[in-house]
Each structure stands twice: as C-alpha cells, then as structure tokens.
Amino acid sequence: MKNIVILISGRGSNMEAIVNACAAEHWPARVAAVISNRPEAGGLAFAAARGIATAVVDHKQYDSREAFDAELARVVDGFSPDVVVLAGFMRILTPEFVRRFEGRMLNVHPSLLPAFPGLHTHARAIEAGCKLAGATVHFVTAELDHGPIVAQAAVPVLPDDTPDLLSARVLKQEHQIYPQAVRWMVEGSLKLADGRVTHTEGESQLRFGS
Ligand code: GAR
User: Fold this and answer.
1) pLDDT (tens digit, 9 = 90+) per residue, 141-196?
2) 140 lines ligand 1 (CB under 6 A)
3) Which CATH architecture has domain 107-210?
4) If DSSP states are collapsed to H, E and C, what string results for the chain?
5) How far is the CA of 86 from the centre of ligand 1 (A)?
6) What's residue 43's pLDDT?
7) pTM of the model
8) Domain map of the chain by residue range?
C-alpha cells in the first residue's frame, strides 16, 4: 500500500478528484494526509470528513522560505509519502524541498506547459489569441511550473471565452488527468529518461476535452 500526501492551498477540487478515484478504482494506495499552508483552505474540511489526516503548516508563521519548507518537509515526511501531490499548492518551493522529494512529487498547472508558467494563465492564453489551452501534470523540479511532462489535456479557447469560462473547461480536464497520473505513480508505470516521461504500457498521456 503506497502513501499519497496531498498539498493544497485552497478549495482542493483536484485533491477531491484524487481521493475519489483512489477509493473508486481501488488503487494500491491510500491518501495518508492532506496538508495546507493556509488554515482556511476549503479542501481541509472535505479531507477530514473522509477520515483523512489533515495538517496545516501556515507559511505566515515562518520568517523565511527555508524555515517554512523545513517544517513542511518534516510534516510531509511524518506520513511516509511514496508520492507527494501538489494540488493547487500556491507556494514556491526551495531547491532543498524539491530535491528531497525529487522523482516522487507531481504538480498540476492550468496551461499547456512550457507555455504560461506562473499566474493568470487563462487570461494570458485568451490575451495571446491562443486557440488551444489546457493543463499539464509534471514532475516537480526546482524551476517553477517546469519539469518532465507526465500528461497533458487540451481544450479549445472559444471566441467569447472569459478567464472564468476557460478555467472551468480546463479544470474539468485536470480532474481527469491528475488522478490518472497519480494512479500511474502508485502503480509504478511511468518511466522517466532524459527528461521525458513515458507510460510503460502505452496508456495515452494526451487527452482532448471540449
Ligand atoms: C488548479 O487549476 C491548478 O491547476 C492550479 O490551481 C488550481 C487549484 O484548484 N495550480 C496552479 O496554478 C499551480 N501553478 P483546486 O484547489 O480546486 O484543485
């Protein structure tokens, strides 16, 4: 049984999708803990109601990124994670933290990386006149929203889109590809070589949504 530890900062809809898929699809894993850097994160209540351990490491209580990350690493390690899942975890991580969980830490980002790392991805995609947008699940490296790509989902950008409409369309796809990617991790069916990720049994790492 593998341990999944999920880090959130807000509503936690990706975390919910992973918790639900883990139970419904009988993964050889359990969500051992959901940890937030914000005490008011909505997702904490969902996790607690499911009987999942929750913890808060409030970044405002630390005077440096290093001190916060050291405490976060200690708390995460306390749940013996095989996979660390960043699900809307909106903190830049120190290289030390990333190194500690390297190769077993995933992130989801709401753009087709390497396009639009950082914030306001949907507004930026609309502004740039993109015809396609989407989401990316990737291994975490020290560079923000960067790292070997595990799965991507593409959706159309429609002529009358607003950032909210596009965000909702992309989020629906995140809820498909992120649980799938975490399942691959717990099954051990991903191969990472030369910065590229393949699924060892050829499951599609690309999805088109509407
Ligand atoms: C998601 O859209 C996720 O892709 C994004 O935050 C949202 C969290 O939603 N993450 C990032 O922008 C990371 N750079 P959720 O809390 O409902 O899962």
Assistant:
1) 999 999 999 999 999 999 999 999 999 999 999 999 999 999 999 999 999 999 99
2) no
3) 3-Layer(aba) Sandwich (3.40)
4) CEEEEEEECCCCHHHHHHHHHHHHCCCCEEEEEEEECCCCCCHHHHHHHCCCEEEECCHHHCCCHHHHHHHHHHHHHCCCCCEEEECCCCCCCCHHHHHHCCCCEEEEECCCCCCCCCCCHHHHHHHCCCCEEEEEEEECCCCCCCCCEEEEEEEECCCCCCHHHHHHHHHHHHHHHHHHHHHHHHHCCEEEECCEEEECCCCCCEEECC
5) 9
6) 98
7) 0.98
8) 1-101, 107-210
